[in-house]
Design goal:
The protein is mostly helical and about 140 residues long. It has five helices and no strands. About 75% of the residues lie in helices and about 0% in strands.
Length: about 140
C-alpha cells in the first residue's frame, strides 16, 4: 500500500501538468498510447495468445483512434461516445451475471475483445472531447478575462 501511495503522489502532479500544459493533439497521442497499452493487456486477458494477432488488433485500434480523431465533432465522433455510454450501462448487467462468456472459447474471446474496444475507444474520444474546447494551454491566464 505504501508503494502505491508514493506512486500516486509522484504520478498525479505529472498527470495534472500534462492535462493542463500540453495541447490537445499531443495529449490525444499520449492517451492513445496508454489506451493501446491497456488494449494490449486486455487482448491477453481475453484469452488471445498469438502476439501477431494481438498486434494486428492493436493496429486496428490505433487506426480507429486516428480515424476518430479525423472525424472529431462529427456524428461519428458523437456516436462513438454515445456507444461507449450505452456499453457501460450494458456492462453493468453483464457484471451481474459474471459467468457469461467466462469459458475460454473462441466466441467468448471475441465477445471480450469487443467489450474492451467498446470500453477504451469511446472513453478515449470522450476524454479528448473534454479537452478539445481549448486547444492551447489549459491554464488560467489573467489576459483571458
Amino acid at each position: 500500500m505504501k508503494q502505491r501511495f508514493i506512486t500516486a503522489l509522484l504520478v498525479t502532479p505529472l498527470a495534472i501538468a500534462l492535462i493542463l500544459l500540453i495541447p490537445t493533439a499531443a495529449l490525444a497521442a499520449l492517451i492513445a498510447i496508454l489506451c493501446l497499452i491497456a488494449l494490449w493487456e486486455w487482448t491477453r486477458l481475453s484469452g488471445m495468445r498469438s502476439r501477431p494477432w494481438r498486434g494486428v488488433l492493436l493496429g486496428l485500434a490505433a487506426a480507429a483512434m486516428l480515424a476518430l480523431w479525423c472525424c472529431r465533432g462529427t456524428w461519428i465522433w458523437w456516436s462513438t461516445i454515445a456507444a461507449g455510454a450505452v456499453w457501460w450501462l450494458f456492462a453493468l448487467s453483464w457484471l451481474r451475471h459474471f459467468s457469461f462468456a467466462a469459458a475460454a472459447t473462441r466466441g467468448n474471446t471475441s465477445i471480450k475483445l469487443v467489450a474492451g474496444a467498446l470500453a477504451v475507444l469511446p472513453a478515449w474520444a470522450a476524454f479528448m472531447q473534454l479537452h478539445l474546447p481549448q486547444p492551447e494551454l489549459h491554464t488560467w491566464a489573467p489576459d483571458r478575462l
